[in-house]
Amino acid sequence: AYELPTRNFDLVNAAGARIPLGLKSKSLRVLVTGGSGFVGSHLVDRLMARGDNVIVVDNFFTGRKDNVLHHLRNPRFELIRHDVVEPILLEVDQIYHLACPASPVHYKYNPVKTIISFINLFSSRLRYHKTNVVGTLNMLGLAKRINARFLLTSTSEVYGDPLEHPQVETYWGNVNPIGVRSCYDEGKRVAETLTMDYHRGLNTEVRIARIFNTYGPRMCLDDGRVVSNFVAQALRKQPLTVYGDGMQTRSFQYVSDLVDGLMRLMEGEHVGPFNLGNPGEFTMLELAKVVQDTIDPNAKIEFRPNTEDDPHKRKPDISRAKELLGWQPSVTLREGLPLMVSDFRQRIFGDLKEGGS
Ligand code: NAD
Ligand code: UDP
Ligand code: UDP
């Protein structure tokens, strides 16, 4: 073993210019909970590219090791299998708290009509409660102890089935506290409450993002979300399942836009909450049409009964993020959708079709 010299020294680059290493700002130590999931792994890619030291804490409930496999040999990267419901001791500068079993299959499906039993459904819901409440509390306790900045990824679901349209951050929402979605939307509302309490009561530096429906490569294939369902169905030559009359709306954001917003929020001076979403609003039938145009014009549509408490419409007002974070999404649905298709094709058909897309 040997020690590296600790004194500051300058490098001379190929052109003979001096690069003062002593002035280079220290690279950050960043914790990403849920970092092997869909959004988290894209965020990790950006942080690693920036030169940060990144620790991912994930229990792999809905995330996959595959999503961060390409960083495993990098000495600046560390992957810890851990459930945030249990306390953990780490030393970092920033915490992006994404951990949440974020998949509608796990909480909102009618167990009589699907393969999910009541017992499994209950234990999934319990997992939401524990992760959103105890998990968020633990990560706030950690942030407080080590003086780290803490960012919560909340959700547009906190607006429930909104009576105001589009949704502004000052709107308090219309949520059913005992409905099928409550373990998710009420759970995130509690997480926001905890975050603001640590901020106001203990001066913990916090940031809150309210994320609207996001899609892109590495989305869970069978998690029941509408974009992943439609894309997988079109590729598998199955009918696109439209719930209800298909006239309900959502606003779909490409994942790179979201990651950009999350990083600006973390680095900026404002607590939030901030809506991070793409204001482009689509009915589910319009989304099905975009999927048909992108993947298979002959894809059939099949109507299914809708789930309970399904919000009728959703669209973010992003004026606050535009003004205070200088952020707005840049990828439209028609541009973003093709970008996830080759990833889905490869994961669905495996190596058989590799190179064909
Ligand atoms: P995801 O399921 O792909 O990622 C969540 C990650 O958290 C997974 O890797 C999962 O294994 C991990 N996790 C779950 N419970 C955990 C626990 N107790 N301990 C440690 N790890 C745990 O979902 P995503 O879409 O990437 O969502 C990331 C965050 O963004 C979530 O907090 C979600 O609520 C929020 N969000 C996402 C969307 C969206 O459209 N994708 C919309 C609104 C909010
Ligand atoms: N916690 C943690 N890591 C830390 C510090 C705290 O996981 O480095 C957890 C701790 O176990 C507790 C929670 O965060 O369950 C809240 O901690 P805090 O210190 O705010 O509250 P207290 O422990 O005093 O109840
Ligand atoms: N949906 C649909 N077909 C599907 C899955 C979902 O029509 O295969 C509808 C669902 O009823 C809802 C919308 O798509 O109105 C968005 O659902 P998702 O679960 O993706 O997101 P969330 O409801 O959480 O916004």
From TrEMBL:
Its cofactor is NAD(+). The chain holds residues 77 to 433 of 438 of the full protein. The keyword Membrane applies. This is UDP-glucuronate decarboxylase. It is an enzyme of class 4 (lyase). Its EC number is 4.1.1.35. GO terms for biological process: D-xylose metabolic process. GO terms for molecular function: NAD+ binding; UDP-glucuronate decarboxylase activity. It is a single-pass type II membrane protein. It comes from Lactuca virosa. Belongs to the NAD(P)-dependent epimerase/dehydratase family. UDP-glucuronic acid decarboxylase subfamily. GO terms for cellular component: Golgi cisterna membrane. Residues 31-338 form the NAD(P)-binding domain.
